[in-house]
Write a structure and sequence with these properties.
With 435 residues, the protein is of the alpha+beta class. The chain is 36% helix and 25% strand. Helix 1 crosses helix 3. About 2% of the residues have low confidence.
Length: 435
């Protein structure tokens, strides 16, 4: 039987997109405490079922597919520009496909404004009305209001009219930044992207005999399996090491590892991979907030996903991507890399920032390891020495040297030179990923 928490989530999913909900309403209609209702609504927000907007409240939204994440909803625009909704609240869940800046004659402006657009304009009241009639929402800049007629029309057409105190140029920049950030988020692999779903996952029950483990092991050649109770909740994990020397008739709960490490669907693949390396585990169960088993991933799944992602074209460059693109190999016999400091990598004083400097050192050391043994690596520890500041536009030479390497780990010394003088050094320790 579903818990009260699960019943609330199921109820929220049945609500119409755009419908407003509240803790008090949920508590009253489902006869639960306000605390239970509050926690369920927060989880619904994490699952992207609802969105909470300042001065508007919490509304049911359409769950966006990952491939469309760069398309912002009007509700998200309200948050981005710290706006106030003047009318058309029922349409906040809708997505915009383009924004138009109203800095031209009215007739020309309307030629570019279509359904699904967002017109960014100041106190040009006719433009507000015409945009709504064309099926576009309106963002009023400069803190101006809209006419009562426009507010009424916005409510009728369910197209938001939003007011913000920022000017038009600033608003356009903020929205561009938000879309760009969404593009970067889109590229970050999450567990939900690579998860083997529960229906395709082999698992054991606590009272299964070890004989059942052996059968699954022969059938799938997998070395480990999650263990669930009668309610489908994860209670342990069992591997080949656990069953050595045990009788075939002994039950799984006697030999399994209890309370195993788990992650959620929203955990990044990279974070899950790091966790598996640090803890020395090959299997990682995926659970929901109630500890129900949702699937499982292996170290091989994580490594394959990371390698595949590295071959994909970039759409939204992060600072890390920019730094990697600046590293160019200039000497092969003794590995040397050239690097030029660009404005994005500097601090307020025009020197290379600590974060960018650390990334340069890490990437150079990882390149040396990949050249040596073709393995992927994960940074475990770094000690950095700044000997002299690195200025904007400086062309650096990075020389990584592998001091020690084994099957599981490696130590790398990195030297940074500018105009043939050593200006920085670092010692890095890496964990190596087995394929």
């Amino acid at each position: 039987m579903a818990t009260k928490h699960e019943q609330i989530l199921d109820y929220i999913e049945t609500l119409a997109v755009g419908e407003k909900i509240s803790v008090r309403r949920i508590a009253k209609e489902l006869q639960v405490s306000e605390g239970t209702a509050y926690r369920a609504i927060k989880e619904a927000e994490n699952k992207r079922l609802v969105s909470t907007i300042e001065r508007v409240g919490t509304i049911r939204i359409e769950r966006k597919k990952k491939e469309n994440i760069e398309r912002l909803t009007y509700a998200e625009i309200v948050k981005v520009v710290d706006g106030q909704v003047l009318g058309g609240r029922a349409g906040l869940h809708k997505s915009l496909n383009k924004f138009v800046i109203g800095a031209m004659q009215l007739e020309d402006m309307m030629r570019y404004t279509e359904a699904g657009n967002l017109l960014i304009v100041g106190n040009r009241y006719k433009a507000h009305e015409y945009a709504l009639q064309a099926g576009a929402a309106v963002l009023v800049t400069g803190g101006f209001d809209a006419s009562e007629q426009v507010k009424k029309l916005a409510d009728e057409l369910e197209l938001p009219v939003i007011s913000t105190s920022y000017d038009t140029f600033t608003v356009a920049t903020m929205i561009n930044r938000a879309i760009y950030d969404q593009l970067i988020k889109k590229e970050i692999l999450l567990i939900e992207d690579i998860l083997i779903p529960l229906e395709n996952t082999h698992f054991l029950h606590v009272k299964d005999p070890i004989r059942r483990y052996n059968e699954l092991n022969n059938e799938t050649t997998h070395g480990g399996f999650p263990v669930v109770d009668s309610n489908g909740r994860l209670v342990g994990i069992v591997t080949s090491r656990d069953v050595i020397g045990a009788s075939d008739t002994e039950t799984i709960d006697k030999v399994m590892t209890k309370d195993p490490i788990t992650v959620s669907l929203q955990t990044s693949v990279a974070a899950a991979g790091h966790r598996m390396i640090w803890e020395g585990i090959d299997l990682l169960p995926i659970t929901d907030d109630h500890h129900n088993l949702m699937g499982i991933i292996s170290r091989q799944d994580v490594l394959k996903a990371i390698q595949t992602a590295q071959r994909q074209p970039q759409q939204g460059e992060t600072i890390d991507d920019i730094i990697k693109s600046q590293l160019n190999q200039v000497q092969e016999d003794k590995l040397s890399l050239e690097f030029r400091v660009t404005p994005q990598m500097t601090n307020a004083y025009g020197s290379l920032s600590y974060g960018a400097y650390t990334m340069v050192l890490t990437e150079a050391a990882a390149t040396a390891l990949k050249t040596k043994n073709r393995k992927d690596s994960v940074l475990e520890n770094i000690t950095v020495y700044f000997l002299k500041p690195v200025q904007l536009d400086a062309a650096l030479i990075i020389r990584p040297t592998i001091l020690d390497i084994s099957r599981k780990s490696a130590k790398v010394d990195v030297e940074v030179l500018y105009e043939q003088q050593v200006i920085g050094k670092a010692m890095l320790t890496f964990q190596l990923l087995d394929r």
